[in-house]
Each structure stands twice: as structure tokens, then as C-alpha cells.
Amino acid sequence: MPRCIFKLLWDTISEGREIFAYVVNRTKFGDHYWVYAHVTPSVDVNGKILSYHSNRRVPDRKIVKEQVIPLYAKLLQAERSHKNGKEALAASMNLLESILAEAGMAYDEFIASLGRDSARTAVVAA
Questions:
Q1: Which domain holds residue 27?
Q2: Residues 6 or more apart in contact with residue 60 via CB below 8 angstroms
Q3: 16 touches 49 (CB < 8 A)
Q4: Number of domains in the chain
Q5: Residue 79, Cα to own-chain centre: how many angstroms?
Q6: 13-56 tens-digit pLDDT
Q7: pTM for the full model?
Q8: Alpha helix positions (H), the chain
Q9: How many whole angstroms separate alpha carbon 41 and alpha carbon 64?
Q10: Strands 32-43 and 49-57
Q11: HSE of 28, CA atoms in CB hemisphere, 13 A
Q12: Could you tell me the maximum CA-CA distance found in the chain, to the nearest angstrom?
């Protein structure tokens, strides 16, 4: 998993907003599996965040294979091009932001559009 995706996820829910993201989970045996996660903060009556809740769905395998894996591979490549952890995170975040800017979408719009628009495939594959 690219670190920038986890940063984006935590930044978003820490601000009290929900997020949808493709996540690679690991089993206790070390295997991995993909989920399409909807993560939301749980708040009290005053809006203070108490905890977080995640609903996970089985993602469309075609979207994962054709769009998510290539995107995450590019983000990981950007991270691996730096030895310093902060620089690695910044590089992948900058790349993600440039991909989103090229698509003309915020992250949530971009993720929701995967599989619906072949133009997204071209952006991810570029």
C-alpha cells in the first residue's frame, strides 16, 4: 500500500469526513486481499470524534487489476525512489495530487469514477 493513501485516509477521517479507498489487507498468515473500504468517523453529540468505523466491500476485480494496482505501483515507485521516509511520502503524495489535478477531480470523485470512465484508465496508466 502506498503510504500516501494511508496518509490521505487518516487526514480525511481526522477532519471528520468520510473516505472511500481501495486497501490491501493482510491475513494473519501473511496473504493479502483487496477491499473497497468506506471509512467514517463516529462522533458524539458535540461532533467530537470518538472512534472510526469501516465498512468493506469486495471490490470489482477488473477495477483493481486495471486501475488501482497500476496507480498504486506508480505511487510506490515514487516512494521507493527516496531513502528518507518523509521525502518518500512527499513524492508519492505529490504524484497523487498531480494525477488528481490532471483528472480534474478530488480524490473521492476520482475513486468513485473508477470503472465508469475509460479516461480514468488513461490517467492512471500515463
A1: 3-125
A2: 36, 115
A3: yes
A4: 1
A5: 15
A6: 999 999 999 999 999 999 999 999 999 999 999 999 999 999 99
A7: 0.85
A8: 3-14, 61-63, 69-80, 85-103, 107-113, 118-125
A9: 25
A10: antiparallel
A11: 0
A12: 45
